[in-house]
Amino acid sequence: MPVIDDESRGADLHAQAALFAACDCVVTVVQTAVHIAGAVGTPAYVLTPMRPSWRYGVEGFAMPWYKSVRLFRQTFDNDWGHVIAQVTTKVENDFGRVSQTQRRTA
Hints:
The longest helix has 15 residues, at 81-95. This protein has a single domain (3-95), classed as Rossmann fold (3-Layer(aba) Sandwich). The chain contains three helices and five strands; from the N terminus they run βαβαββαβ. The protein is α/β, with parallel strands linked by helices. 31% of the residues lie in helices and 19% in strands. It has helices at residues 13-21, 32-40, 81-95; strands at 3-5, 26-29, 44-48, 69-73, 103-105. The radius of gyration is 14 Å and the shape is globular.
């Protein structure tokens, strides 16, 4: 599974929605990408801070608006290590291991 770094396309929401619709999964932090992926029904794994904005709730792994979004929450402030490990495991379980040679920039 190739990894796409879409950092440069953030301003064009239609293009981003089309890209996300073609993806197997989107891995992101709490931002607009979560809502675009959720709106087009693409699975999204979201690295969520310990105290997120109200949209992400204070507990649980789901968002009420998007069935395809899965939240991975910090248990300690500024500790992303276990969140990244959980997301990595989930991606590898769902899609297989991603090697550095499969990574590409859009």
